[in-house]
Amino acid sequence: MIVKIVLLEIDILAKYTYTNAMTKRSEKKFITYCTSNHLRLTPPRLSAFKILQKAKKPITAYEVLDLMGNDIKNPKPPTAYRALEFLTQHGFAHRIESLNSYISCDSDHKHKGSQFTICDSCGNVGEIHLCDIPDTLQEAVCSQGFCTQYWNIEVHGKCAKCCEKNPDCCDDKGCSGDA
């Protein structure tokens, strides 16, 4: 059992890269945002923010919860979920629905929509910054009498690095590099 727990912690920590300069700039931006908008900067919110900033790949709420234990005594699941909800509401994180996980957002603007490319081979996630819903999608949504509040698009496939390893990975619907 101890070996399993240690392996889980190693697996979780393997998803992190500690780039202190970038994390410190982002942390300062986060703190300034909370202060200037009169939002409570609680230890769980700051802890979740730092954890997502250091993550190389999307991370689940329970992985955030496990790592929060390094900063907060005995955190419970609602603590992690509330902190992640705060971060997503204020544009500092995105929820990757299909992976049931979260990723930090370093954009200097708020989104009404998010778009991600998700590599099914290596797990890398890329964020595409389209600030407005594409016209054809908006037209289709409006034709149903639906009012969009926010939107999320996740495109699954293989990243360039994985396709490099296997040139036959993309079919006629994928990209061959010459778009």
Description of the molecule:
With 179 residues, the chain is of the alpha+beta class. It folds into two domains: 1-106, Arc Repressor Mutant, subunit A (Orthogonal Bundle), CATH 1.10.10; 111-179, Ferric-uptake regulator, C-terminal dimerisarion domain (Dna Ligase, domain 1, 2-Layer Sandwich). It has seven helices and five strands. Strand 1 (93-96) and strand 2 (101-104) form a beta hairpin. The chain is globular. The chain starts with a helix and ends in a 14-residue tail after the last helix.
- Rg over CA atoms, rounded to whole Å, is 18 Å
User: Can you say what the CATH homologous superfamily of the largest domain is?
Assistant: Winged helix-like DNA-binding domain superfamily/Winged helix DNA-binding domain
CATH topology of the largest domain: Arc Repressor Mutant, subunit A
CATH architecture of the largest domain: Orthogonal Bundle
Mean pLDDT: 82
Strand order of the largest sheet: 4-3-5
Helix content: 40-55%
SSE run: HHHHHEEEEHEH
Q: How many beta-strand runs? A: 5
Classification by helices and strands:
alpha+beta
Tally of structural domains? 2
Strand fraction equals 5-15%
Largest sheet: 3 strands, mixed
Question: How many H/I helical runs?
Answer: 7
Low confidence ranges: 1-20
Secondary structure layout plus pairing:
Layout: H1 2-13, H2 20-36, H3 43-54, H4 61-68, H5 77-89, E1 93-96, E2 101-104, E3 113-119, E4 125-128, H6 135-143, E5 151-157, H7 160-165
Parallel strand pairs: 3-5
Antiparallel strand pairs: 1-2, 3-4
Helix pairs in contact: 2-3, 3-4, 3-5, 4-5
Put the structure in a nutshell:
By secondary structure, the protein is of the alpha+beta class. The protein has 7 helices and 5 strands. It has 2 domains: 1-106, Winged helix-like DNA-binding domain superfamily/Winged helix DNA-binding domain (Arc Repressor Mutant, subunit A), CATH 1.10.10; 111-179, Dna Ligase, domain 1.
